[in-house]
Amino acid sequence: MHRMDGGGLMGRMDHNPTQRVSFGCPEDDLDILDEIAEDEDTSRSALLRELVAERVAERRDTSDDLFMPEDEELRNAYRTLLDVADERIRGAGLRLTVEEAKNALYDNRTPKDAVMSKYIRPLKPDFVQIDSDMSNVWVTVRPPTPIHSTTGATGAPADD
Gly residues composition bias: which ranges (predicted)? Predict the structure, then answer.
């Protein structure tokens, strides 16, 4: 990537957009956006596409056209995890610790020690992924996907 005269980063055009968008933005915001893109080893355009896709996914979150858990309790748990998770993992979704997930999902009917078996594990592999590192166990919450684009391991519905 290289700096353009306007101060922004320019990356390869390795995508195939169907529409192009141009808009004005304060230079200070662009400078910070470029810093974020550089920190994440991506282009400004790729970062903007990702942000647009996330906002569109948020809007679609209430749509009947999304692949969601069939069970109402699991669907509500998945939506809660989407709302609570705040660490963005590039290309994977949003992440939170298992403890944060348990705190968000337990109630009088479901104690914390039952959250994993009642909610989180049944959401695997289509809606969440569980990983660990040296200090934490993480739940990565996959973003909702339109029904026509799902290919989940459990036979997610596909548009014929």
Answer: 1-10
